[in-house]
Amino acid sequence: MKDFKVMGVLNVTPDSFSDGGDFNQIDAAMAQVERMVEAQADIIDVGGESTRPGATTVSVDEEIARVVPVIKAIRQKYPQITISIDSSKAEVMEAAIMAGANFINDVNALEADGAIEVAVKHDVKVCLMHKKGTPKDMQDNPEYDDVVQQVLDYFDERIETCLSWGMDADNIILDPGIGFGKKLEHNLQLIKHTSTLKQMGFPVLLGVSRKSMFGELLDRPVDQRLAGSLAVVQFAYLQGADYFRVHDVAETVDVLQVSQSLLQQQDDTAEEV
Question: Is this model's pTM higher than 0.90 or not?
């Protein structure tokens, strides 16, 4: 039995950094969902607004128009799979859940008006992500005194707020927000300290797939960042991360299954001794 969850990215947008425009038609989107389900994705993460650095916002109505038809189609074809809505707008979350979504993935950690109420009302799992700034300006020279501690402090505040609204603690997942208002050194520090974040007592989600940090580290374009992404996935899993948001589902599942088998073999050997 897997002890990890793989979240497959489905951007139904024209401008996402890696796959913008690839899946913003229903047939293309459903073909991609089928590939991810066959590759053993646990969650399909549907996003209708790009959060790449420099991205502009879209209206509530436009975002709903992009995500709801796809969510309805996924739910009809795959009644058992978890569908995540990747949004920061309460109205979009509500519409997505009514269409069949049962997970909220919010880069703003439910800070928008009404967002916590929607999550509590529908009793769904929620990924709270840390970011600094907005997509338009978040990479404009972000600075931290201690990035790990500041992310931990932010989560302390958000968790307390969510619990005070009546959210079930078992529904909370934490994402340090790699690439969201962080320089390369900040990203590396947060990944290195995955186990520290895990000590807060909540599942940890990591999203590093194809991100610009690999362009800086390896001088690779977006379509050549798989190896770097998988290296971080394995490292973070060994540090205790639970959820992995990725574009390349099959390869990620392979790495995690092998890693899990190695850990189990190590445990079995220790018990024999």
Answer: yes
